[in-house]
Amino acid sequence: MTEFNRRQALGALGAATAVGLAAPACAAGRKITVGALRFTSHAGSFIAFERGYFAEAGLEVELKFFQAAQPMAVAIASGDVDYAITAISGGLVSLADKGAIKVIGGALSEEPGIDGQKILASDAAFQAGLTAPAALDGKSFGMSTAGSSFHYMGSKVAAAEGVSLSFKPLQKVGAIIGALKSGQIDAWSIVPHIAKPLAASGAVHIIGDIADYLPDYQVTTVFTSATNAADERDMTGDYLSAYARGVADYNATMIAQESGQAGVDAMVDLIHKYVYTDRPRETAAASIINGTMRLNGGAALNVASVRDQLKWFQSEGLVDEGITLETLLDTSYVETLGS
Question: Which helix (H) or strand (E) holds 5?
Fold first, then answer.
């Protein structure tokens, strides 16, 4: 994979350069629906909504929440959702091949030096010797569906370690967590704000980091319908500009901590409206902070990582071999890195 120092590159780009934050809104009064998961990594959307960045861009936004990537991709294709943040999946690639969707930016990437996704083992498997990824041979690995980001990550780890995994499709993140805690599956990988609390419970153990295997992995992307990408350029640009402002606030507050502890506390309060809403703020705060990962400044997109993912989907027979990056991506809206 092409070397990609995002800390340096994205800092130089800045949100304004990448998507024209200073440009006047041209989509005033447009109502759009934005898809999201209740993950800390989706904080850019929550911040843009709560701090009025979408409204300032002339967009009236409704947030719609999902429990997995594939239903969100289907919702974009059907027109039920206009823009969304999610991992690239085989289903998403297939929808792009049908002319239904386009990836238009990057949302979250693994970055050396920044806490990232963890590789987990159930307590039963850990006690039986699964204490490192090298011991995964013959073990079961949880995923939502075939062709999901979990499937991709597990396969990449297995290939690097020269081991064989048995993948278990469980549809939803909650079901995967339950299966891991009960020992019905042996291993899984997930973002830190979910991984660390699970490990703290004693039912699950952290045995590795995805960044060691996929150091510049473009974990999630920004995508929309092919129609919006091609025919609603002003609206799409306004959406990306507002989203990028939310991302800039998040990185400045949670990564650089430019506003100190008071800023972190205020950001946690905002995110808690959407993440771990079933917990009191005092117990949710640690998990939200544990989930701190740098988001892609300006929604910049790591094309090299997307290329690697597409090749993997094709090698597994999950998508057609003739699909190209141009089929999947519209790179005209943001800076591209690692291409």
Answer: none
**Can you say whether the dihedral through the CA atoms of 194, 141, 86, 305 is positive or negative?**
positive
Task: State the number of CA atoms in the 13 A half-sphere of 223 facing the CB.
Answer: 31
Measured between alpha carbons, how far is 22 from 64 in angstroms, rounded to an integer? Answer: 27
Tokens of 84: 């969304």
276 close to 191: Cβ distance less than 8 angstroms: no
Answer whether residue 309 shows pLDDT above 90. yes
- For residue 311, give the 3-state DSSP assignment: helix
CA-CA-CA-CA torsion sign (175, 178, 183, 186):
positive
Residue-range domains of the chain with CATH: 6-111+217-337 (3.40.190.10), 118-212 (3.40.190.10)
One-letter amino acid identity for 254? M
Report which secondary-structure segment, H or E, holds 296. Answer: none
Q: How far apart are alpha carbons 215 and 110 in whole angstroms?
A: 6
Q: Which residue in this structure is represented by tokens 């290329």?
A: 307
What are 44's two structure tokens?
């850019």
Q: What is the pTM of this model?
A: 0.83
What is the pLDDT, as a whole number, of residue 90?
85
